[in-house]
Design the sequence.
């Protein structure tokens, strides 16, 4: 064992040395300044980009009209707009007759960035820009020709609302920014780029209102992001793994949303948002229990409708957590609690079932979780099969075969239904997993077990924080806010921004204006 | 966005105070009154409240006038280091005794009323284990949980009360003075330790955000507790009459067995979870304060680490009495009378000593 371990260690270190040398060479090549000789520059680019293997890197040689200088355009055919290259770069350059004028005056492209180092050039080409190298010049020009392929702005799929805007983020960062800017037309809205990965050069955009969001929070996130030492962070879902406070906790500390309107709502309350290219969703932080409990529609429904839905959601949360454990506790320990007629009905159906309630409930719960997971992964055309399998085989047939009693089917169905009422996926997962612990504690100690479980859960929940904000703030500990927690107040009564994010300006609108509107 | 300093708001403080004191109506404290108080036991609650308001007033006054708003400092200022520590040790012993007796009572309630087959050791260990976990989380989190659970518990309690009173008969209240004014007054005097939790909760004053909130919170909680206890004791008399209720150890649990609402005939298990949550909060606060005093006495910086040891001691002593329904009840009576003396005397003593010290100090510079 020792031998193999040493062998492994040795071979590993050998590999590392080899990798290190090639990496060092490549870093050295990238750090070189742009040479005055076109041929040298092009050769360097060819080596760095492995041109013989890389099919979409195009190097176009030509001679500029008028000045008669040799030049080369370097770009990816897959990430650039060919028409722009032709109309705004090639054509003006070739048809130029003026011998004295500068490049900036010839090109009609929107933006031209001079690059003095090879690494800058590589970055710009990677971003979809076109590089222009001219013989005799010790700098290159990066011309904006970006055109990445992607889908257009579509409807949100996971956070559906009946009233309210129906745009969702897509994988294109420009579109995401545009969707946010469209909603907040304020010069204080900042998109600050922070590089988050070393190899793939992914960039996260910290989005906040400069005159509102707490400086310490911004600094903290910036520091956390810049300290990330990873090769690639492809999107916000992965970014969440790296920056969340408790990766092993059941409860999320960052809100993940695909709705720009939800994002702007949080930004306007002093929160901070992270967006990235290739991400159909944004990360909102800090996030409290309430932000997971609320849904995006709560802002759009009328006052009473929202509060009715919120009460329903609260009931759903408790049903989802406790109904199965309640059944186990009642049938195992506290049968005297049920009204006599109902008890007789339950006993009569349970008479033929060979399993104790715990096993019975576990079986059905796992079956339901399977249907849910399979339903999510199954290809669309055979999706309806899942429904048939679920309803017929697991519901009816299991009861007829005396594997489970009908009341368990009702309970598991109710349980599943309630868990769907919690719109946030992270909270939904947490509740689904906690439910099993609740069932086990009910089987051990009945109601007392459920209370044990609940108290421990509650103590855990009040003790955790999301970026320094207690999970149940502003309910407890109390903070000045609009008390948008279990229920929502009328919008015109909402005077404060949530105090727990410590915004620079806590009042939403001046109090006197509010008083005036009353009178 | 630095970590929030552990602190208690007025809501959390009141919720803690109520969890400590008003859960008394569900254990054997009402039965301790019924023996002598008969159908006027509810007057004893009010009588004790009048007596108890003196030490509570003195405590609140001393703490809010002290610059650090800390009972520990008040005790040390008044008695000096050595005697202060002796006094703290006495308080700690009172509290430990109270925790042992009350936890034994609660385990007995669960063991005799709800989980008859479960061994007491299991109930004891899990009950205090969970409370220990809670206490180790710190006072801010205990406060948060008690505030989050406060409204549901209050609603459940009010519902139980409403159902009890509607089933009761008002004629059971008469003769209104019961055993006579003298007996009521005597009992009010010796049972004043019903409110001794207001003494222990003063140790938390230093965690309050503002001393004003401490003052306000204590008095609000005190008034609500007096009201709750009075109504509860009254409701037991209305439902059972004093002769029957004298036979019960835990009248609250008998009462919720007696009542029904519509088609639901057995409601006790509906109320059980709420009662259990309140119990957990109560013991977590007790254990927290106990570890706090212990840590202060023996200069342990991170006193929460002694909580497991405290729990082990409480369980091993609490399990000693056999037939707890009888023995613990008896011990509780004596403990209540004993701690009444301490509850009245300690604040008075502190106040007098502080007064004397102040006088001496003010005389020194002038001379």
Sequence:
């Amino acid at each position: 064992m020792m031998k193999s371990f040493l062998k492994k260690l040795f071979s590993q270190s050998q590999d590392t040395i080899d990798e290190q040398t090639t990496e060092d060479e490549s870093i050295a090549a990238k750090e070189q300044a742009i040479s005055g000789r076109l041929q040298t520059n092009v050769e360097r680019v060819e080596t760095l980009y492995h041109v013989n293997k890389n099919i979409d890197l195009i190097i176009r040689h030509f001679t500029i009209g008028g000045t008669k200088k040799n030049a080369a355009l370097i770009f990816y055919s897959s990430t650039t707009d060919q028409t722009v290259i032709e109309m705004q770069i090639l054509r003006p350059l070739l048809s130029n007759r003026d011998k004295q004028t500068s490049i900036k005056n010839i090109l009609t492209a929107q933006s031209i960035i001079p690059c003095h180092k090879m690494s800058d050039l590589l970055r710009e080409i990677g971003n979809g820009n076109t590089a222009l190298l001219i013989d005799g010049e010790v700098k290159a020009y990066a011309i904006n020709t970006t055109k990445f392929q992607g889908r257009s702005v579509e409807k949100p799929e996971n956070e559906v609302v009946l009233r309210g805007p129906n745009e969702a983020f897509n994988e294109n960062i420009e579109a995401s920014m545009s969707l946010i800017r469209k909603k907040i037309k304020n010069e204080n809205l900042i998109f600050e780029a922070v590089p988050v990965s070393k190899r793939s050069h992914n960039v996260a955009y910290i989005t906040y209102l400069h005159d509102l969001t707490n400086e310490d929070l911004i600094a903290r996130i910036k520091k956390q992001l810049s300290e990330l030492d990873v090769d690639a962070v492809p999107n916000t879902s992965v970014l969440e793994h790296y920056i969340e406070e408790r990766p092993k906790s059941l409860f999320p500390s960052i809100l993940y949303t695909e709705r720009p309107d939800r994002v702007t709502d949080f930004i306007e309350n002093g929160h901070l948002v992270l967006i990235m290219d290739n991400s159909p969703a944004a990360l909102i932080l800090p996030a409290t229990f309430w932000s997971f409990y609320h849904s995006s529609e709560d802002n759009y429904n009328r006052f009473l409708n929202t509060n009715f839905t919120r009460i329903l959601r609260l009931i759903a949360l408790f049903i989802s957590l406790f109904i199965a454990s309640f059944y186990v506790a009642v049938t195992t320990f506290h049968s005297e609690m049920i009204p006599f007629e109902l008890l007789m009905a339950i006993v009569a159906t349970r008479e033929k079932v060979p399993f104790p309630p715990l096993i019975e409930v576990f079986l059905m719960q796992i079956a339901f979780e399977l249907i849910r997971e399979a339903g999510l992964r199954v290809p669309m055309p055979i999706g309806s099969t899942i429904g048939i399998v679920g309803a017929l085989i697991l519901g009816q047939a299991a009861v007829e075969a005396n594997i489970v009693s009908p009341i368990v089917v009702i309970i598991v169905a109710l349980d599943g239904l309630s868990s769907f009422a919690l719109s946030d996926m992270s909270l939904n997962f947490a509740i689904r997993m906690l439910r099993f612990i609740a069932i086990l504690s009910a089987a051990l100690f009945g109601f007392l077990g459920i209370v044990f479980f609940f108290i421990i859960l509650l103590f855990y929940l009040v003790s955790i924080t999301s970026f320094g904000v207690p999970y149940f703030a502003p309910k407890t500990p109390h903070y000045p806010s609009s008390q948008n927690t279990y229920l929502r107040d009328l919008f015109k009564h909402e005077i404060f921004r949530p105090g727990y994010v410590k915004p620079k300006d806590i009042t939403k609108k001046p109090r006197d204006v509010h008083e005036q509107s009353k009178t | 966005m630095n970590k929030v300093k552990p602190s208690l708001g007025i809501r959390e403080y009141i919720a803690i105070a109520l969890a400590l004191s008003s859960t008394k109506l569900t254990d054997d404290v009402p039965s301790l009154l019924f023996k002598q108080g008969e159908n006027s036991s509810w007057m004893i609650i009010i009588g004790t409240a009048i007596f108890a308001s003196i030490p509570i007033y003195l405590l609140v006054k001393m703490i809010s006038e002290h610059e650090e708003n800390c009972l520990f400092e008040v005790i040390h200022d008044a008695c000096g280091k050595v005697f202060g520590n002796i006094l703290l040790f006495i308080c700690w012993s009172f509290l430990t005794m109270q925790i042992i007796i009350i936890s034994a009572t609660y385990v007995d309630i669960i063991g005799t009323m709800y989980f008859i087959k479960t061994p007491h050791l299991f109930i004891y260990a899990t009950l205090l284990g969970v409370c220990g976990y809670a206490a180790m989380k710190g006072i801010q989190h205990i406060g948060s949980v008690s505030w989050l659970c406060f409204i549901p518990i209050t609603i459940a309690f009010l519902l139980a009360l409403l159902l009890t009173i509607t089933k009761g008969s008002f004629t059971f209240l008469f003769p209104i003075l019961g055993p006579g004014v003298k007996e009521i007054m005597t009992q009010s005097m010796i049972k004043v330790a019903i409110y001794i939790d207001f003494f222990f909760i003063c140790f938390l004053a230093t965690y309050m955000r503002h001393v004003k909130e401490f003052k306000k919170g204590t008095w609000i909680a005190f008034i609500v507790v007096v009201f709750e206890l009075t109504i509860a004791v009254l409701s037991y008399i209305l439902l059972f009459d004093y002769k029957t209720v004298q036979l019960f150890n835990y009248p609250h649990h008998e009462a919720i067995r007696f009542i029904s609402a519509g088609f639901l005939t057995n409601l006790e298990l509906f109320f059980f979870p709420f009662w259990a949550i309140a119990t957990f909060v109560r013991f977590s606060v007790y254990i927290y304060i106990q570890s706090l005093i212990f840590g202060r006495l023996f200069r342990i910086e991170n006193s929460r680490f002694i909580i497991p040891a405290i729990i082990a001691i409480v369980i091993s002593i609490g399990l000693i009495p056999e037939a707890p329904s009888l023995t613990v009840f008896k011990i509780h009576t004596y403990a209540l009378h004993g701690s009444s003396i301490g509850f009245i005397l300690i604040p008075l003593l502190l106040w007098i000593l502080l007064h004397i010290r102040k006088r001496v100090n003010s005389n020194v510079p002038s001379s």
Observations:
- Chain B touches chain A at residues 1-4, 7, 9, 11-12, 110, 114-115, 118, 123, 126, 130, 133-134, 137-138, 140-145, 147-149, 263-266, 268-270, 272-273, 276-277, 280 (CB under 8 Å).
- The two ends of chain B are 52 Å apart (CA to CA).
- The mean pLDDT of chain B is 88.
